[in-house]
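Q: What structure does this chain adopt?
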Amino acid sequence: MKINYKEITVKELSEGFLEDKETNGVVGYSGKLNIRPKYQREFVYDDTKRNLVIDSINNDYPINVFYWVKNSDVDFEVLDGQQRSISICQYVNDYFSIKDKEGNDKYFHNLTSDEKNKILEYKLSVYWCEGTDSEKLNWFRRINVSGEPLNEQEMLNATYSGTWL
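A:
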């Protein structure tokens, strides 16, 4: 497996963000990133976890590294970091608000230009992984030993993905 490090901004990740409820497809990174490939589970973060991702960005706290599979020079899929990616993209696209210190709802569009820029210019650490399907599956299993545990069915979905899933 070949792995390369890259930094991208929240702005780059969230450009072209689209959720297709009919196909359950989610894309970002100017349409070049499949955020929810077939082997990934649904969005499982509750409001608290989702809001903590945005709070971490607002406070310049580091967020865990993202792993993307590089399918071609212009085509990627999320191997790890789907929940964080969706949380970030949804916030930047006004799907939800977070509370400020006074308890007021703060949608992205309500922020001042400097608050927006702070979020949009926040750097995310991404490892781009290239390899065979079995190498990618083994890497997926390895990086999913912590965090939100996958249930047995989700692990089967990761192993045996197809149009019937």
